[in-house]
Each structure stands twice: as structure tokens, then as C-alpha cells.
Amino acid sequence: MGVRVPSCAQNLPSVGKPALGQVLTFTFQTQPAPGGSQNIYMANVTRENIGILNDKITVSLNKEDYYPAFDKAIKDYSKKANIPGFRKGMVPPGIVKKMYGASIFYDEVVKSVEKKLQEYLSQEKPEIFAQPLPMEIDLRSMDMNNPTDYDFHFEIGLKPEVNIDVLSTSNLTLHKVSVTDAMVDEEIERLKTRHGKMSEPESVNSEEDVLNVLFKESDADGNPVENGISKENSLLVKYFTPEVRAQLMSKKKDDTLVIQLSKAFEEKEREWVISDLGIAKEVENDQKFFKLTIVKIGLVEKRELNIGFFKEVFPAKDIETETEFREELKNQIQQHWDSQSRVQLQDQIYHLLLDTPIELPEQFLKHWMARGGEKVKSIDEVEAEFPSFSKQLKWTLISDKIIKDNNLDVSQEELRENMRKEVMQYFGQTTMTGDMNWLDTYIDRMMKEEKQVDSSYHRLITEKLFTWAEGQVTPKEKEVSPEELNAMQHHHSH
Asked: What percentage of the chain reaches a pLDDT higher than 90?
């Protein structure tokens, strides 16, 4: 349910060696610049509002802010430069200035701007998205031979206030499924088949027989269609219509039968077969003929309800009677549907929070989307992506507030326990016995994999977030059928 948004905190590209006519770019550290008083530059930084949650910061430099550092950098470079015709460390500063001065000059100016801006942000601490975006500056106005005062402008987007009081006044519904005896009976039949033994009878004699059949597209007489469909599939005899089932009885391996899709299957099964054959769901395709060849006949001998069967289904439980088995199965089914009910309630909570009005610095965010990523995006690209981006960003703001205000976190022990459960589920086990040192060693390796840890943390913190949110609402209960709840689940994906 938790949704991630591309990081708004990534740095802008660091400055290189720009040529005339290019635009300066800046990179900012996440901590204050070392050394110096934070107050000496404050008079040279101003801020003004230019839009909704959108401000402009102006950093003003005079010659004394950057020229001493530039002069020192030239001298330092002359001591280290290795230029043909001069001994190392003996290159005249004038030669260095002539050859490399422009690039060094730009670098020192940019460093001064970055330092002043970072000191301002560190002291004022505005709640901003991403990093300040530099407004364009024509480098042709910068001349190392004529140092002067410069103004550098930056755009910032301010984070809005987020209010989630809507939870306490919500009108949500917890859709509940009550497990019936019929549902238990159906699950028992499924388990008896799943744990059954497969045999290969010589001929078809039961609706429960499994047929491996080859579908070859043909005409009504069974003559192959040129470039027609040919595919093998497995079907239970009972999936066919009663008329076709009667024709299949007593047939053996390699026997054939010509069918028409519209007459061989009811609508539900026909849709599945058509999809598996890779043809479009259209009326004319329902009329296609296929010649079926029986490749193999199988029959699952269903298990009997005995202690051995009970132990296979619930190995960790001490179940000896059918009554105990049915009760445990009913509990398991109820847990499943209760879990699905919670997922559906969480979806309601997600949309309730996401529909809460939150004002965003739209102008800044669009500028950032266009210029702040790995590649520059066009206006059309930004406009197309912004609705989805803003929705994800709103959810990030909401979830961050909930996590911060309620001190939600995931401990190292919780991460390890979650990974342990995942490994055991992978091996189809709920409990393991014997020497478990290998499992601890495996989890130690998983804890060193950043992607694995990040994925587990995100999943666990999202679970905690929604558990907290569920505690803030009082939904009314409404009983629904499994089909109705499943239909609700299909309407969302987060």
C-alpha cells in the first residue's frame, strides 16, 4: 500500500569547467560549510516570495568574497602544475592564470556562493523540497580580469502543512466475510485433490480425469487450417459442456475429437481457454473449430480424511479427528478473509488521506522535474508526469508525518525476524529443527544487502503506519460474500 516517490533530496550536478555561454550549476552539501561564523554572510542573502510555497533566494557576492581565494588557488596551482618548459613548482602564476584562470575563477566564485547559501539554509532551516534550483546566469558576465559584484538567484519549494485529522471523523466500512460450512467443504475437496495421488487410466471414465490435449485449429471436419493455432493444454473433463463430456468418455490416448469453442465450453471456461490459446476475446473466435488429440490421461485419487492427511495439511498441529480438522481449517480460512478485509480497509484509509487537500509548490516542482533529474525533460513530459508525481509526493508527505509524529520505526531485530520468516516461508516451513546456524549466517548476509534491507524496512514501516491508522478510525462492519470482497480488491493497486 505504501507508495514511494522519486527522491526530492538528490543533489544537483556538481560544477565542472564551464565554457563561455554555459549556465552555472551548483551542488550543495547536507551539512554546514566548515569554518567561519554563520552570521558574517547573512546580510548578503535575501529571500522573497515568488509564488505559492515558492521563494527566491538571492546570494550577493562582492570581490572580497571570492577574489582572495581565487588568487590563492592560482598560486597553489603554480606550485603543483607540471607544464612543459618549466620546472615543477616554478611555473609563474601569470602563466597559470593565462592558461587555467577562467576555470579556476568560476570554481572559486561557485564555492563562495555555495558556502553562503548553505550557511543561510543551515541557520534559517526552511522546510524545503529537494535542493535550491539555480536560476540561469550568463557566464559571459563573469571576467577574472574585471572582478565585480555578482548576484546569484535560487528557487526553493517549501513543504506545506499536512493535516490528517480527517481520520478521527471518517466514515469507513470494514467488509467482513463469515466462513460457512460450504466454504470449508469446498476447501477440503481442493486439499484432497492437491494431496492426492496421480494415476494414468487407459481411458476417460470420470469427469475428474485430467486430459493433456493438443489443440490444432481446423475446419468443421477436422482438416488442419493453414498457419492455424497449435497448442497443448491440460483440462479437467468437467470443464467441457455435458455434450462434449459424453463424447470424451471411453476415449484413449491418441484419440481425437473435433470441437467448436462456443459449444465445447461454457462462458467462464471458454474465456480461459481462448486466453490460453492466445486469441482475442471476440465473437468470431468463439466459432473457431479445433481438433483435439488426447496426449495423456490422468486421474487424481483423492485422499481420505485420516490422521495422515491431517498431518500433511497441518504438520505443526496435533489433529486426530475430522471435527478438529474442520475447525482448524475454518480458522485458517477466516484468518485469510479477515486479512483481506484489513487490506480493503487500508485502501479506504489510503484514499481518505490522499484526498485530504494539500497545497504544493507546483511551479517549483515542475521546474525541478524538468531540470533536477538525470536528464532534462520537456514541458510536455513534465505536464504528463506531474499528476502521478504529485499524488506520490502527497502520500510521501502524509506518511512521513505519521511516521515522525508517532515515532514509528523498525528495529534491527524486527528486520532480522522478518527475513527469518521470509526464508522459512520460501522453504515451505513454519518451524525448523536441528542446527540452525546456517539460517543465522544467511540472514547476516541479507542484512548486508542494502536493497534487501531497504525493501524489508519499507514493507515493515508501511505495515506499522497502517496499523496505527486503523487504530484512529472506527469503521462500521458490513457482511459481504467472498466474491464481493474480491471485486473490491480488484479496484485498487498501491
From this structure: 72
